[in-house]
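Appendix B, example 12.
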Amino acid sequence: MSYEKKFERNMPVCLECGDRIRYGRADKRFCSDDCRSRHHYAQARMGRSFRRRILNTLSKNYDILEGVIHSGSDSVDLMDLCAMGFTPSIVTSYRKCGKHEEYGCFDIKYIMTQTRVYSVSKIQNFD
């Protein structure tokens, strides 16, 4: 009787290009240094893109709230703000004060309910 050993290695797939990795360690994740570099660069680029979108949204929210302050009003309908491009889910600070919730966009604070934004004002002596 002859016994044949068939060793079949489950070859991993490169995370960047999708090719089979035919050599190296069993836990190898990339087929080459170029694929590894491309993959890590793309991951970093996605992170930078996400941060840029958040900062742009915060900047737009700040400009809209500053416009509300300059108009002399301290209260405005939330739907009107949203129509101007305000994104209520993106804030820089949040705190619960008694029965209401106070939100912040850099140095502007406001109270937001389901339908209105109240008490829009700049924080004094912001250091």
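Residues 43-122 form one domain. DSSP finds two helices and five strands in the chain.
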